[in-house]
Amino acid sequence: MDVFFYVIPCLIMAVALFMAYRVVYRSLQMRSAWNSGLTAQGRCLRAYTTVSGGGRDTAVSTTLHHVYEFTARDGRLVRFEEEGGPGTTVEGDLVTVYYAEGARVVATAHAPGRARQAAGALGMLVFLGVVVVFCFGFMVTYSDFSSGVNETGIVEETGFGGF
């Protein structure tokens, strides 16, 4: 039974660390697209929303998605999807696309907002760091506490205020 008090926090930490990796990866992609200096005129092909939540005890969350298409400098037709664009962009609208060339083109239709993007990424990383530290602290505390319980279930001296 003790294994659950180690496995569950480890799984939570693994998910938090993966999310931190994705936040940093997306932040670097956006920065490379903005810093490349390459822009193109793109067209919004589709706009749609996804809805999540709405259960008995959860709020409904709606996310706006856009599908864009543009022609890169080398003549390739590039299509990409992006979350969180402006609600005023509808199918057929022309937008400015910022992109970085390479084997895989990285593109965004979000206007450069380096400070806002960095603040959002930093805030998410701090939150995920708190989750990881909490899980690690929980495992250490549980380990210290469980090592003070003998086979009969009686708590022995552990250094926690005389327990």
What report would you give on this structure?
A hairpin with a 5-residue loop joins strand 4 and strand 5 (106-108). The longest helix is centred in the C-terminal third of the chain and has 34 residues, at 114-147. It is built from 2 helices and 5 strands; from the N terminus they run H-E-E-E-E-E-H. The protein is an alpha+beta fold and 163 residues long. Helix content is 40%, strand content 28%. The chain has helices at residues 4-35, 114-147; strands at residues 38-53, 60-71, 77-83, 94-100, 106-108. The chain is elongated. Helix 1 (4-35) packs antiparallel against helix 2.
- Output the structural class: alpha+beta
Query: If you average the pLDDT, what whole number results?
Result: 88
Radius of gyration: 24 Å
Report the major sheet. Answer: 5 strands, antiparallel
Q: How much helical structure, as a percent, in the residues? A: 40-55%
Order of strands in the sheet with most strands: 3-2-1-4-5
Distance between the termini: 22 Å
The run of helices and strands is HEEEEEH
Approximate strand percentage? 25-35%
Uncertain regions spanning at least 5 consecutive residues: none
The outline comes out as: elongated
In short:
By secondary structure, the protein is α+β, with helices and mostly antiparallel strands. Helices cover 40% and strands 28% of the residues.
Give the topology:
Layout: H1 4-35, E1 38-53, E2 60-71, E3 77-83, E4 94-100, E5 106-108, H2 114-147
Antiparallel strand pairs: 1-2, 1-4, 2-3, 4-5
Helix pairs in contact: 1-2
